[in-house]
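Recall from the previous chapter that SMILES is a line notation for molecules. Here it describes magnesium ion.
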Amino acid sequence: MAIDSSAKSSLEGIRTGSSPSDLKITDMRIAVVGKDNWRWPIIKLYTNQGLVGLGEVRDGASARYALMLKSRLLGENPCDIDRLFKKIKQFGGHGRLGGGVCGVEMALCDLAGKAFGVPAYMLAGGKYRDKIKVYADTPSKKDPEEMGKVLKDRMDQGFEFLKMDIGLWIAEPEEGGVVNRSIIQERANVMHPFTGIQVTDRGISKMVEYVETVRDIVGYEIPIASDHFGHMGVENCIRIGKALDRFTLAWYEDMIPWQYVDQWKQLKEGVDTPVCTGEDIYLREGFEPLVEAGAISIAHPDLATSGGILETKRIADLCYDAGIAVALHQAGSPVVAMANVHCAAAIDNFVALEMHSVDNPWWNDLVTVVGQDGPMIQNGFIKLPDAPGLGIELNEEAIEEHLNRNPDRFAAYPEGMFEPTDEWNELDAHDRVWS
Ligand SMILES: [Mg+2]
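With both inputs in hand, we obtain:
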């Protein structure tokens, strides 16, 4: 039977409110939110149909990394996520350099979801869970009892997964705790194998005492991950790791730089606690050497560096096949946090999503989750929204109030709130990376 146009519009459940095939990107604007050295450039991608997509450049990265992509996106259909990602991914890189490409990818997913009328997690293959476990990173306290109490407070707030720092700073004040202690500050930007810093048995026993005190207070009910050990070679990391294995921590994070695959393998084989890295790695091919070598127990991509929602799902699938779990690193505003929530929902081998803003009183004010009441994080979890796209709306008043205008370091660019960016409209390069 032929279907005429009137019958077509009456077909049950077919959306006629948007025309995804005719959707075009018309503008990109940015507002840099944050406090002190925390900078979160929030992206708006505008379209010819009134839909606006939200994304966010990696915390601490330049908004220019996204703005340089504007001329490559104007006139494009945001629903062509895969094609556009291939077009722009040459302009990203490891660490903060991935921030622009990833921020745009989130905004494309937000737009495509809104155009199709589906939540972003459905673009990544659908969900494995309805709420996402958040793990709270917790600022260090010199006194282990104080640290234990802060972690216990987090548990009382409902968090079921925590992280703490265990570093050279515990061993260093002890006389004879660290070899080469005078150069710790000076070598802060030197990669671990090259600092010449070593920790002694005495230093390690201070670290053991510290963790023992914390564990005595916090107990063993929930997982506690560990990070920021300090810049020393893999042999020292193994000695520390072996000494701390008895506290059954969830993982040792970034003990050495992710680039040294053979040393990661050595570390993994040398300790009995899971080892974890990935927050600075760009794209699936960046993770492949570590995964293929079986050199990590847990991959830890930051979605705002690793390639956005769909690429991070591909990284997770690669890990799944190798029996590697995935925790998500995240240190941004609620915009990037929600992009992570959608991605986490679609990852079978997901463990927990990082949160750095538990103590920030205005963090939750920046957005409203469509169809939900109260703060985004409740009892240590974020509920998966069902609204189209990322399922959030910006609270513009709060955004304006918290624009980062810190003049001391990294003056924010752009300074204003979603102001015109016409100077980024013109393409002036030949982009092809093959001939
Ligand atoms: Mg870390």
